[in-house]
Amino acid sequence: MNQPVIYAIGDIHGELDRLRDLHARIMFHHERLYSDRSMTLIHLGDFVDRGPDSAGVLELLIEMEARDDINVINLRGNHEQMMIEAYGPDKSEARLHWLINGGDETIGSYGRRGREHPPQAHLDWAKNLDTIHMIEDQKLAFVHAGVEPRTFPDSGERVHMWTRSKRFFDPSTWRTTALDGWTVVHGHTPTRDFQPDAAGTPVRRYNLDTGAVYGGKLTAGVFAGPDEPVHYLFS
After folding, report:
1. Which residue spans within the chain are E strands per DSSP?
2. Structural contact between residues 218 and 22, judged by C-beta atoms closer than 8 angstroms
3. How many Å apart are CA 62 and CA 13, to the nearest integer?
4. 3-class DSSP state of 88
5. Other beta carbons within 10 Å of 52
6. Nearest residue to 39 via CA among 12, 2, 4, 73
7. What is the DSSP string of 135-175?
8. Has this prediction a pTM greater than 0.90?
9. Tens of each residue's pLDDT in the chain, 235 residues
10. Which residues lie below 8 Å from residue 121, measured CB to CB, with a gap of 6+?
């Protein structure tokens, strides 16, 4: 049986129209090149905040999880975590932290739908998302921000959602044998040139956050197998 083709999408940040466009490009690309293979679609987190329609992005992702023609995996990013904590037991300080990091735009997107705040169903959905997805037979790890090379695969949720450690960003310093042969695919840190970043020789780390909400691109990395080079689709 052929392995699924994996499409991993970087930080969305409320860019619903661009996400819909990128999904359409992915479907066309898959039908044209890989119609005999199944599809796995991985969204790498940071679905909400800063952009125009975070509520719509969450609605779309929740709907897509129910599809039976593709496998959809959604990972929790630090902005989903900030939103969850903004409505948690210690919400006063957490709410301010979220609002000044783009949460006000998220609340506005719900306001346009007649809601004062995100519904509990959306908060519960986000809270139940995994923070890492590992494909053992291909040694691919998908995560929002990154991993801790010294403790991989047990880096912990906070690292998965928040890290910008130099140890992670430079694969030449990855010393643990647990990471031997693994490639990590992530977002979280916008690339300066709005292009995907591939680091290491051979490549061990892909950064797919190409700054969509800052005037850059929304990017999907296409992982079709070890014998095919990784390529990209943009919106």
Report:
1. 5-9, 39-43, 71-74, 132-135, 140-143, 183-186, 197-199, 205-207, 219-223, 231-234
2. yes
3. 16
4. coil
5. 17
6. 4
7. ETTTTEEEESS---TTTTT---HHHHHH---HHHH-GGG--
8. yes
9. 589 999 999 999 999 999 999 999 999 999 999 999 999 999 999 999 999 999 999 999 999 999 999 999 999 999 999 999 999 988 779 999 999 999 999 999 999 999 999 999 999 999 999 999 999 999 999 999 999 999 999 999 999 999 999 999 999 999 888 999 999 999 999 999 999 999 999 999 999 999 999 999 999 999 999 999 999 999 9
10. none
- Residues 122 and 232: their CA atoms lie apart, in Å, by 30
Task: Name all contacts of 17-25 with Cβ < 8 Å and 24+ positions apart.
Answer: 17/53, 18/212, 18/218, 18/235, 19/57, 19/60, 19/218, 19/235, 20/60, 21/235, 22/218, 22/220, 22/233, 22/234, 22/235, 25/220, 25/233, 25/234, 25/235
Q: Which amino acid is at 234?
A: F
Tokens read off for 177: 């044998």
Query: What residue has token string 């990590």?
Result: 184
- Would you state the structure tokens that stand for residue 138, as one six-digit string? 């291909």
